Amino acid sequence: MELEEIMTEPWTPSDSVIDLMSSICEPMQCKRGQLLVTQGKRSHDFFIIKEGLCRSFYNGEKYEDTNLFAKDGDIIGSIASYFRGEPAHFSIEALTALDVLKVSFEDLRKAIAENSELSAWVRDLLFGQLNALERRYTYRSGRGDAYYRYVSMIEKWPHKRFNDIPLKHIAQYLQITPQMLSKIRRRYLSEK
Questions:
Q1: Residue 30: which domain range?
Q2: Which of 99, 104, 103, 92 is nearest to 30 (CA)?
Q3: Tens digit of pLDDT for each residue in 21-53?
């Protein structure tokens, strides 16, 4: 996806705002397995995914929890690092090769200060992210059984790269064991 296409959510900004945003984006290629954000370290950038798939995850003392997947057109980064200058609370890992646009927090702050339309676009983007987080929390906090959550995930995330997500990460996201996920997938395929 191109930046102009990505920026049309939640509304289409003017060409000058798209040009301004484009001027602060740095194209970057990431290899599968590469970390864009590292838990416990301060991040200095946001990433706009042009093509590819990544996940956000948290490493606890005894477990790892995948808390979201991001795909073409999504914008990812550490909000804690951006707003408070704190270390990231999670890591972001490339699950496939990624084609991203890197935007430094400093450049974004300067551009927002100079352009109220870009500021409004970023504000609406962040409110959209909060809405998505709210839906994800409701979804992951036990609505329905594991089978229901799996089917809902497939229906809500119909993306060509879904099959590129390792099963262990889907199981973490759904808060079930990989063995349970295998049983659920067999059931799902038999009922299709």
A1: 3-125
A2: 99
A3: 999 999 999 999 999 999 999 999 999 999 999
How far is CA 53 from each of CA 42, 84, 124, 166, rounded to the nearest angstrom?
A: 22, 27, 23, 11
Same domain, 56 and 12: yes
Q: Tell me whether residue 133 is in a domain.
A: no
Q: What angle (nearest 5°) sits at the alpha carbon of residue 56, between those of residues 129 and 177?
A: 120
Residues with Cβ < 8 Å from 33, sequence gap 6 or more?
93, 94
Residues 95 and 172 in one domain: no
User: What pLDDT digit, counting tens, does each position of 94-109 carry?
Assistant: 999 999 999 999 999 9
Provide φ and ψ at 133, rounded to 5°. -65, -40
- What is the model's pTM? 0.86
135 is a domain residue = no
Same domain flag for 22 and 99: yes
β pairing state of 64-70 and 98-104:
unpaired
Give the tokens for residue 155.
């229906």
What's the structural domain count of the chain? 2
